Amino acid sequence: MRIEHECPQCGAPVVLDETDRLLSCGFCKTKLFIQAADHFRYSILPHDPFLEDVFYVPYWRYRGMHFLCKTGGVENGLIDKTFLAADIPGIPQSLGLRAQSLKLTFARPGKNTHFLKPAGAFDLSLAAAKNTVEYDLVRTEDTRIVRTSEDDYDIVPEVRLEIREEHIYHETFLADTVSIIYAPYYVRSNKVYDGVTDDATGSEPGRVLGAETTEGAWKVSFLPTICPNCGWDTISGRDSCIVFCAKCDRAWRVTEKGLFPSEFSRLASNAPHGGPRVYLPFWRVSVTMTGTRLDSYADFIRFANLPRALQPSWEDKPFYFWLPAFKTTPSVFLRTAKQLTIASPEGAGPALPPVAIIPVNLPLDDAFSATKTVISDLTMRKKTFLPTLPDITIAVREASLVLLPFIENNQELVQPDINFSLFKNTLKVGGNI
Ligand SMILES: [Zn+2]
Ligand SMILES: [Zn+2]
Fold first, then answer.
1. 366/425 same-domain check
2. Which residues fall inside 5 Å of ion ligand 1, going by CB?
3. What is the pLDDT of residues 400-410, one digit of tens each?
4. Whose CA, among 214, 287, 312, 314, lies 20 to 30 Å from 198?
């Protein structure tokens, strides 16, 4: 979705992407973080810009990654949906693909505009899987022996179809955002019209005219991007939630109330120098988990039953989950978290690296919500562990942001010490989730 706005400094038009949290004005070069108190609210412009008495009907827009821990393993996907947030029969229940192709602006109260109040807060059950048990039709290729004559047999292929019961033990949403999109409607000659298409809807005018409206205390705030400590420009991506200052070697958390100090460390690489380097950010988290000790790396190997010979030093090596602090596709997120957690790199220093850092755009809370999914995918004891998921609680004991060096080649980012790589374009795709 594209949002049209104007630069708060010079008024020049700026086109933002829905996931942008940084406004860069191409005209006056101002850079500002954009923050909303709760949700971002956008409005679709009516077909006729001079339309009067516009009734803006709210839709929840929900986007994010989705993971299901099921009998058959971990499934992932993306959710991108809109749901009507008001109780008005006759109005479409969803915006469909419309919002993606239309011009939007930040919703602002104006003369002769009425913003209808959403009926209650967003309910995640709208996006959740509808059943806890699914029935999947499974195709199994098989062979069958058939008699072709008195003493001759043939082996013929056969496909068996079986219904398999799949229990959903755990469901996680990640990197998810909830915003509100207001769609314009108007009333003429006792009919409710769609303000974009000018088509009549089947709705009762009274339901729209009599609906509760909201005053719109939802200002979007713009914050300076300079380092609060030294005044230099921070290094920030278009959707960063943590930014860095290369001048005074600090990290800052971007919040609606301003920039707050954040801790970080970086790992050095033992690999010989080769190719341009970039650093990828990770949340390194130690945890407590119901029923299982996960203090040492040895505890983890025993719990997950990984085919590795236990080494005595692992009893003293602390165990951490390594969760990407950057957005990527759901499958790459899971694979990266798994492989880094198993590899468990060590040795961290302070100081910001003198090379590029991939923006931190996945906050700790968000990344951490995937921990149950990551451990479910890691363990070799899926059959016994997955059914216990609903009764298990995992809590953060200690967490820090760690930058890990990668070598960049044409297509990939490669971590030579642990022999891990990912395709660069998955970061680009992830940035648009
Ligand atoms: Zn400007
Ligand atoms: Zn600074």
1. yes
2. 7, 9-10, 12, 25, 27-28, 30
3. 999 999 998 88
4. 214
